[in-house]
Write a structure and sequence with these properties.
The chain has one domain. It is 77% helix and 0% strand. It has 14 helices and no strands. Helix 5 packs antiparallel against helix 6, helix 5 packs across helix 10 and helix 7 packs across helix 9.
């Protein structure tokens, strides 16, 4: 009995860590609106600060990086890090172009893109039972991108969908990684993402990198340290012992939180078709993941 009680309490702790992480991820778009910096500069700072925080965490817990594992997976780590940097460039630009809710929902087409592309790129068999979820998700995006909705525009939707494609690439490249600690993987990917964003930031800002000033300093530090470094540590710590279905369900708190932040705090609206589309995208992606987890 004591063993069962300990297991329940332990799972509750892991669930709390994971839930806290995905909620933090869901508020990033909202805080980005209060930073007086180009979105790509904020994204680059997030990669730098996040990688440094996790590296410090590894050293403080006396678990130094396994450089042999990093070297063995260097190719896929670099490719996934580049994809992460591109995802942030497009997603952060989408946040600033359309509503936070719509940018987030378009980015959450990634699980649907994974279903469609893994048979081609990873030679995994296509689960035909998931095809209805794909169709419903694409219908959802069409409804979300309804031009009659306030704050909706085609460039913002396309930026969000491009971010989703980049996230799909991250998932595919991560499938190639073997025998590497999740924290080490994150350190390298975040660092590479910052290096990826740097040339784009220089070109986009005419050869200079604007520095945060005033309140933007604290928000950038928070996004890099709390919403990235700390959140990644919570995420991977909670991920280790949770059932796959629990992870799938709790993971979809992130787009829900993004939508709520958009509506409640930023006062952004989508209209009835936008809300229907939101439910279709999140529901389709969630059901598609639960379908796979249940097999």
């Amino acid at each position: 009995m004591h063993g069962n009680l300990f297991l329940v309490m332990s799972n509750a702790g892991e669930r709390l860590k994971y839930t806290t992480a995905v909620i933090l991820y869901g508020t990033i778009g909202m805080f980005l609106r209060y930073v007086s910096l180009p979105s790509e500069v904020t994204a680059m700072c997030r990669g730098i600060l996040g990688s440094l925080f996790i590296l410090l965490f590894r050293n403080l817990t006396k678990n130094p990086m396994d450089m042999n594992a990093v070297k063995a997976n260097a190719k896929w780590l670099v490719l996934s890090g580049i994809s992460l940097g591109l995802n942030w460039i497009f997603l952060f630009a989408a946040y600033m172009t359309t509503t936070v809710a719509i940018a987030s929902i378009c980015n959450y087409m990634a699980p649907i893109f994974v279903i469609c592309l893994t048979p081609l790129l990873l030679r995994e068999p296509l689960d035909k039972a998931k095809l209805p979820y794909v169709g419903l998700a694409f219908l959802g995006v069409l409804l979300v991108s309804n031009p009659s909705g306030k704050g909706v525009n085609l460039p913002g939707v396309l930026l969000g969908l491009t971010a989703a494609l980049c996230f799909t690439a991250i998932v595919i490249f991560n499938r190639k990684l073997t025998d590497i600690n999740a924290y080490d993987k994150s350190i390298v990917q975040l660092a590479v993402s910052a290096v990826t964003i740097l040339p784009y930031a220089l070109v986009h800002n005419h050869g200079t990198i604007p520095l945060p000033t005033g309140n933007a300093v604290w928000i950038v530090l928070m996004l890099g340290i709390v919403h990235t470094g700390f959140a990644y540590c919570l995420y991977f710590s909670g991920l280790k012992n949770l059932p796959v279905q629990t992870i799938a369900v709790l993971g979809y708190l992130e787009p829900v939180v993004s939508v709520l932040c958009s509506v409640l705090f930023l006062r952004e609206t989508m209209g009835i078709t936008g809300w229907i589309g939101t439910v279709l995208v999140i529901g389709s992606a969630l059901l598609g993941e639960l379908h796979g987890a249940g097999q």
